[in-house]
C-alpha cells in the first residue's frame, strides 16, 4: 500500500441509471429475450434465466480412455448432471442497490432466498445463491438482482468446505465455523459488526482487501432454517452501507451463501455445516483502483495489501448511514437516483 500506484485506473463505476427502462429485460412490464413479459412486480421477482450458464444438455466427457485412467489415479471427471439457473430481482427500481433499500425490503429478499433454496433443494444437492454487483464484477445489468444456480453435483469450493468442516467436527466434536466465530468474538480486532444474531468479520484467510464473512451466532445449517428474528436484514444493510461509504461509491463485489447440501441427502447428518455468506469486493485504494490477482498470486500464493485487522478497523470506523443519504433514514422516499463516484487514485 506504500508504493505509488502506477497501474490501471478503472473508469467511473456508475453512471446515471433510470428508475425504469421499458427496454431493460429485468424491469417490471419489460419483454425478455424469450418473449415473455415480466409482471408489474412490486417486490422480488424470480424467473428462469433466459441465458443459463449451466447447460443440462452439455456433452459428457468423451474421452473414455482418459476417464478410465483418471479413475485409477484418483482424478475426478464430471459426467452427466442436471441443473437449474434462475434470476431474482430484488426491487422494481433499477436505480437502487441493497444498501439503499429499506430493511423490510431487504428482509423480503432474504425470505425469497430461503424460499428458493427450499424449493430447489428438494431436488438438487447444491443451491448456489450469488450476486455480482457492478460492472467491475462482470455484471451487465445495473438492475438489482442475483442469480440462483442449482446443480446435481457439489462444486469444487463446496466440496472443500464440506471436507474441512466434516473433518473438524469429527476431530473436535463441534462445527468449525461456530468455534471460529467464538474465537473472533474474543479477539475483536477482526470484527466489523455484531448483532444479537450475526457476526460480520474479516477472516484471517481473506485475500481480497475488504473481504468479509457473515456468520449466524446460532448453529444454522441452511437459509430456510433461519428464524424470523435471524432474517432481520439490518446487519446486511449496515455492512453494505459501510462498503459504499469506504470510497463513496456503489461498492462492487461478488457475494454468495453457502449452506449444507440438500437434495436426496438432505436428511443425512450435516451438523458439521454452518451457514455463512462470503463477500469478495475488488476495490483496494479508491473507487477506481482495484486489486489484481496476477503473477505470484496466480502461480504461488495470494498476497494481502493490508492486514485483515487493518481492513476490519477501517470498515468498523465507517458510519452506518449511507453517504448519499446524509442523516436521513434510508427509506424509499429518500433514495437518490444516481450515485457519484469516489475520488480517483
Automatic annotation (TrEMBL):
Fe cation binds at residues 161, 258, 276, 278. InterPro entries: GalP_UDPtransf1 (IPR001937), GalP_UDPtransf1_His-AS (IPR019779), GalP_Utransf_C (IPR005850), GalP_Utransf_N (IPR005849), HIT-like_sf (IPR036265). Keywords: Carbohydrate metabolism, Galactose metabolism, Iron, Metal-binding, Nucleotidyltransferase, Transferase, Zinc. Residues 162-324 form the Galactose-1-phosphate uridyl transferase C-terminal domain. Its cofactor is Fe cation; Zn(2+). It comes from the Eukaryota. PANTHER family: GALACTOSE-1-PHOSPHATE URIDYLYLTRANSFERASE (PTHR11943:SF1). Binds 1 Fe cation per subunit. PROSITE patterns: GAL_P_UDP_TRANSF_I. GO terms for biological process: galactose catabolic process via UDP-galactose, Leloir pathway. Belongs to the galactose-1-phosphate uridylyltransferase type 1 family. Pfam families: GalP_UDP_tr_C, GalP_UDP_transf. Its EC number is 2.7.7.12. GO terms for cellular component: cytoplasm. Signal peptide: none annotated. Plays an important role in galactose metabolism. The active site is at residue 145. The keyword Lipid metabolism does not apply. It is an enzyme of class 2 (transferase). This is Galactose-1-phosphate uridylyltransferase. The lineage of its organism: Eukaryota, Metazoa, Chordata, Craniata, Vertebrata. Residues 1-155 form the Galactose-1-phosphate uridyl transferase N-terminal domain. The keyword Transport does not apply.
Amino acid at each position: 500500500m506504500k508504493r505509488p500506484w502506477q497501474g490501471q485506473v478503472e473508469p467511473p463505476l456508475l453512471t446515471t441509471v433510470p428508475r425504469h427502462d421499458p427496454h431493460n429485460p429485468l424491469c417490471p412490464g419489460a419483454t425478455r429475450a424469450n418473449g415473455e413479459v415480466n409482471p408489474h412486480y412490486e417486490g422480488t421477482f424470480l424467473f428462469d434465466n433466459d441465458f443459463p450458464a449451466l447447460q443440462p444438455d452439455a456433452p459428457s466427457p468423451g474421452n473414455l480412455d482418459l476417464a478410465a485412467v483418471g479413475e485409477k489415479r484418483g482424478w475426478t471427471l464430471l459426467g452427466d448432471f442436471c441443473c437449474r439457473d434462475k434470476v431474482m430481482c430484488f426491487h422494481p427500481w433499477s436505480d437502487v442497490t441493497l444498501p439503499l433499500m429499506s430493511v423490510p425490503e431487504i428482509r423480503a429478499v432474504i425470505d425469497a432466498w430461503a424460499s428458493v433454496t427450499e424449493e430447489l433443494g428438494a431436488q438438487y444437492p447444491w443451491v448456489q445463491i450469488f450476486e455480482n454487483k457492478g460492472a467491475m464484477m462482470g455484471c451487465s445489468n445495473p438492475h438489482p438482482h442475483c442469480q440462483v444456480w442449482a446443480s446435481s453435483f457439489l462444486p469444487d469450493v463446496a466440496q472443500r468446505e464440506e471436507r474441512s468442516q466434516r473433518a473438524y467436527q469429527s476431530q473436535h466434536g463441534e462445527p468449525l465455523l461456530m468455534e471460529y466465530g467464538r474465537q473472533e468474538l474474543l479477539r475483536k480486532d477482526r470484527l466489523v459488526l455484531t448483532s444479537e444474531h450475526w457476526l460480520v468479520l474479516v477472516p484471517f484467510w481473506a485475500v481480497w482487501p475488504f473481504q468479509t464473512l457473515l456468520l449466524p451466532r446460532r448453529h444454522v445449517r441452511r437459509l430456510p432454517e433461519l428464524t424470523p428474528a435471524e432474517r432481520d436484514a439490518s446487519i446486511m444493510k449496515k455492512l453494505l452501507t459501510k462498503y459504499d461509504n469506504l470510497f463513496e461509491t456503489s461498492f462492487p463485489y461478488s457475494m454468495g451463501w453457502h449452506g449444507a447440501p440438500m437434495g436426496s441427502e438432505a436428511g443425512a447428518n450435516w451438523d458439521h455445516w454452518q451457514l455463512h455468506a462470503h463477500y469478495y469486493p475488488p476495490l483496494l485504494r479508491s473507487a477506481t483502483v482495484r486489486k489484481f490477482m496476477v503473477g505470484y498470486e496466480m502461480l504461488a500464493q495470494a498476497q494481502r495489501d493490508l492486514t485483515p485487522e487493518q481492513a476490519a478497523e477501517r470498515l468498523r470506523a465507517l458510519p452506518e448511514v449511507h453517504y448519499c443519504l446524509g442523516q436521513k433514514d434510508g427509506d424509499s422516499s429518500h433514495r437518490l437516483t444516481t450515485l457519484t463516484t469516489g475520488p480517483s487514485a
